């Protein structure tokens, strides 16, 4: 298999990738904890949010059929959608209150 990540001396090791990521995070001034698995997590969450089927997710991410991971990411996106809907509703109510109190 060909390497996905290459450095000046060839294929990067896992440690090399982690060090590169940590350096870029510092350079960007990001204070949140950023790690390599976060990219997999974000990808799976976005795939579930986009409607990727459980079977396709299991195949793509290497989970066994019926894996709790599939439910984990699906539940996470449902919570995120509910939070976003609540934020929009609160914003709308606040705008209406501003109009009514004028």
From TrEMBL:
Residues 1-86 form the Tyr recombinase domain. SUPFAM superfamilies: DNA breaking-rejoining enzymes. The keyword Glycoprotein does not apply. PROSITE patterns: TYR_RECOMBINASE (PS51898). One of its GO terms (biological process) is DNA recombination. InterPro entries: DNA_brk_join_enz (IPR011010), Integrase-like_cat_sf (IPR013762), Integrase_catalytic (IPR002104). The keyword Signal does not apply. It comes from the Bacteria. GO terms for molecular function: DNA binding. Keywords: DNA recombination. Pfam families: Phage_integrase. This is Tyr recombinase domain-containing protein. It comes from Actinoplanes siamensis.
């Amino acid at each position: 298999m060909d390497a996905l990540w290459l450095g000046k001396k060839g294929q990067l090791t896992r440690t090399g990738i982690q060090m590169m990521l940590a350096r870029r995070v510092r350079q960007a001034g990001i204070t949140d904890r950023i790690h390599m698995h976060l990219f997999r997590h974000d990808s799976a969450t976005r795939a579930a949010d986009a409607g990727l089927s459980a079977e396709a997710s299991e195949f793509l991410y290497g989970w066994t059929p019926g894996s709790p991971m599939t439910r984990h990411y699906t539940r996470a996106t449902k919570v995120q959608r509910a939070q976003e809907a609540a934020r929009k509703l609160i914003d709308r109510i606040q705008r209406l209150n501003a109009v009514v109190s004028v």
